[in-house]
């Protein structure tokens, strides 16, 4: 299997979502082809990616001409135009692109894109909304990442009543299904957690938990 650094990525559609992905992939040292039918969008990103090309993503001959048949992963970021996304994905499948990720604006669009060949579909606005809602559940939540529909990785400030107790004493796993996988103390992250180490004021915990924890987050205040 190719190393990630040797893979080529294509981003088709250079709105805010697509251009952000293209720039960040390039920042991480990956080979990126950024594509849009609007020359203004292409020129705007030209200096920030490996290659920037103006073409019609629904034209398979144009896609073939820029080497799309050698791309390892393509991100179809034109979520608002369902017809264009469908034709583009069908073209990419015919060209043999190994992995196709598509943006969709709603669940119906998502279902269609998966059926016609997308390997993964993302709904950015919905995901951002879900993440923000979870963060607003408690000011103690610093950041979170959904692993899947049932589980998340969350970084939280330790609650006041946890200070001075060990993880063994708190018994978070048995009481709440919380697995502590890291602790940040004095801006230093440690991923080897001693369950007998005492929690200190200012600590931040990295935890893995089920998403139903957010429905009863206030109960954490009553652990001890």
Polypeptide structure, described:
There is one protein chain. By secondary structure, the protein is an alpha/beta fold. It has 2 domains: 4-122, 3-Layer(aba) Sandwich (Rossmann fold); 127-222, 2-Layer Sandwich (Alpha-Beta Plaits). Helix content is 32%, strand content 25%. It is built from 8 helices and 11 strands. The chain has a 6-stranded parallel sheet with strand order 3-2-1-4-5-6, sandwiched between helices. Strands 7-8-11-9-10 form a 5-stranded antiparallel sheet. A hairpin with a 4-residue loop joins strand 7 and strand 8 (151-157). The relative contact order is 0.10.
Average pLDDT: 90
In N-to-C order, the SSE pattern is EHEHEHEHEHEHEEHHEEE
Stretches where pLDDT is under 50 for at least 5 consecutive residues are none
What's the number of domains? 2
Helices, strands, pairings?
Blueprint: E1 8-12, H1 16-27, E2 31-36, H2 39-45, E3 51-54, H3 60-65, E4 73-76, H4 82-95, E5 99-103, H5 107-115, E6 120-122, H6 124-137, E7 141-146, E8 151-157, H7 167-170, H8 172-176, E9 179-185, E10 188-190, E11 204-210
Parallel strand pairs: 1-2, 1-4, 2-3, 4-5, 5-6
Antiparallel strand pairs: 7-8, 8-11, 9-10, 9-11
Q: What attributes characterize this protein structure?
A:
elongated, 25% strand, five-stranded antiparallel sheet, six-stranded parallel sheet, Alpha-Beta Plaits, 224 residues, 2 domains, Rossmann fold, alpha/beta
């Amino acid at each position: 299997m190719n190393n990630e650094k040797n893979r080529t990525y294509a981003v088709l559609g250079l709105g805010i979502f697509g251009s952000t992905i293209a720039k960040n992939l390039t920042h991480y040292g990956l080979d990126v082809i950024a594509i849009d039918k609007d020359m203004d969008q292409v020129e705007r990103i030209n200096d920030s990616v490996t290659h920037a090309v103006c073409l019609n993503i629904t034209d398979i001959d144009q896609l073939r001409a820029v080497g799309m048949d050698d791309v390892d992963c393509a991100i179809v970021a034109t979520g608002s135009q369902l017809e264009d996304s469908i034709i583009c994905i069908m073209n990419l499948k015919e060209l043999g692109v190994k992995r196709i990720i598509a943006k969709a604006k709603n669940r119906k669009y998502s279902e269609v894109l998966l059926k016609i060949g997308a390997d993964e579909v993302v709904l950015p606005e919905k995901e951002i909304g879900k993440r923000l809602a979870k963060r607003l559940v408690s000011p103690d939540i610093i950041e979170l990442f959904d692993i899947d529909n049932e589980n998340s990785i969350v970084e939280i400030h330790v609650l006041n009543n946890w200070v001075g107790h060990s993880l063994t004493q708190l018994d978070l796993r048995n009481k709440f299904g919380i697995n502590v996988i890291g602790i940040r103390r004095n801006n230093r992250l440690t991923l080897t957690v001693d369950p007998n180490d005492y929690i200190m004021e200012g600590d931040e915990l990295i935890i893995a938990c089920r998403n139903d924890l957010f429905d009863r987050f206030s109960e954490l205040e009553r652990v001890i």
